[in-house]
Amino acid sequence: MKDVVVYLCDCVSVSTWLYGQTDGTSVVLEADGASVELTLGADVVTGQVELAGGDAQAFTAVAAEGDAGLFRAEEQTVDGLHIGGWIVLAHSLEQRGALTLGGAIVECPTLDPATGEADASIGTLSTVRCFRNPITGERICRVLD
Q1: Which of 62, 78, 94 represents a domain boundary (last residue)?
Q2: In a domain? residue 112
Q3: pLDDT by residue (tens digit) across 36-82?
Q4: How many CB atoms lie under 10 A from the CB of residue 88?
């Protein structure tokens, strides 16, 4: 079985993590009114994403290189668990990311992909490229370059 992690973010109203597993080359993930259909290739992932009430949008993703990738941070404060997520694209290091509390976006701090840190109102967040799949409890890791 392959673990699959998808993060969707527009830093306006969407910051959603989707998790699942597949033993083949396709999988459908659903969470928070979002649905993602993936076809997993050796070097590329294709599919479509549909947000609640929206039209499906096709996409193609290639493996991350260098400082690009998917990043996550978790910070417990007296207010609750803050979860940060960032998608950093390789071609321009353009990024989308958000910090949430209770599922609501509270801010959109910029991530420094070289250090894996983002300065937020709650302090400096340190990110990881390793996640725990809530379905299986298994760790899903990307080897750091």
Answers
A1: 62
A2: yes
A3: 999 998 889 999 999 988 899 999 988 888 888 888 898 999 999 99
A4: 20
